[in-house]
Amino acid sequence: MLCVSLMPETTGQALAGLAEAAGAADLAELRLDAMREFDLARLLAHPPCPVIVTCRPRREGGLYDGPEGARLETLRQAARLGARYIDVEHDAIAALGDVAPARTIVSYHNFHETPADLDAIYSRLTRTGAAVVKVAAHANHILDTAPVLRLLRQATQPTIALSMGPRGMLTRILAPKFGAMLTYGAFGDGREAGPGQVTLREMRDLYRVGRIGPATRVYGVIADPVGHSLSPRIHNAAFAEIGFDAVYLPLWVEGDPAAFVEAMREFAFDGYSITIPHKQAVMRAADEIEPVARRIGAVNTFQRRADGSLLATNTDWTAGMASIEAVVGAGWLRGKRALVMGAGGVGRAMTFGLKDRGADVALADIDAARAAALAREVGAQTVNLGDLAGQACDILLNCTPIGMQPQTDASAVPRQMLREGMVVYDAVYNPLETRLLREAGAAGCRTVAGVDHFVRQAVEQFELWTGRRAPVEMMRRVVVEALRQA
Fold first, then answer.
1. All domains of the chain, ordered by start, with CATH?
2. Which terminal CB of the chain, N or C, has fewer other CB atoms within 10 Å?
């Protein structure tokens, strides 16, 4: 079930929020501790949806700092007036007593960390006699979500469990897959009742939480940071379009991406997109690497096969070459001089693609040693960043994140490098038109936008994961509309 959390200040605001919740969520949580005044009789006389009432004290992360006796009596009154559930803290449930006909949710909150003894805490909560157990712990790293998912999967009674904070988002979205009684959403940005809550609209429309169940397949994009990624929009929309039971998540993975992939094996995630800065380090978690991807030395796709093993591959190089050839024509690259900016994951993929097409390649990177190592691998040259203005090339490729949101005023190359007739490719797709592409167009260059590459590589991933034809035009439309609205 999807529950919307309400943090109103007055009875009038609460009534409006409950009316808004009807039809948009299955339940509404009413946080009395946020209210300056409230009339419980009015609020609970004829609620348009089932209501959870809580009055969270400051010791448990709430706003109430009045007398404990008065707080508990308010909760008892809410139960008598028709609240479906009363949410009370683990250290106050005994004092609260029986609140029938309402059901009790016993809550534990930790706003600092995910404690190592989470299982023991859960076990103590189950012995309180509450109808529902709720555990909410802060995730300082995405790996902190693993014990929360495990707790949900092994729950012995109706349970709510979530990781708070932006690194814990996946637990909120995947709650129904792992058997949670409910998960929470907020009406909008700035109206969250807890750290890391996802908006109700995103929960319902983007992630389709109401449709998630035990059989739902799980995919996601591994990145650091991940907030800018449009991959969740494009893949979730495509899943919905073809009626595929799957969800695609943003996965903010700091540090070692291979450690995250290994930790998630027990939960049988079905596949990943991998982007900056993890395309090389994540390879350690693969059981098999497709031969071309191994030669490139970077991957952007993981697929879980029927036997549970993980196959890593690279759709960047094929999508990148197809995007360029859609502008210049097949065969144009043979014998052309190409200058590749960036020797990371995308740069490696594009360099191998260019060499495969017969181009002469020069490489430039802020990490000169990395550029030199790649140049030795593929038989390319290197260029110092300080010498860019004097370089001549037929095609220039920006394979760095320079120019990406929010640094949209930046460009990977000096304007004086751009000349009429040159082809300029930019891997950055957010914004839709980067400064580099604007300046290249003004100089009379032919341009290849990153959005085309992004859609093509996503299409290849989608078809690999699903075994079905991707709704290509719809996927492109979703991305372009999102970028235009940004």
1. 2-214 (3.20.20.70), 231-314+455-485 (3.40.50.10860), 329-448 (3.40.50.720)
2. C
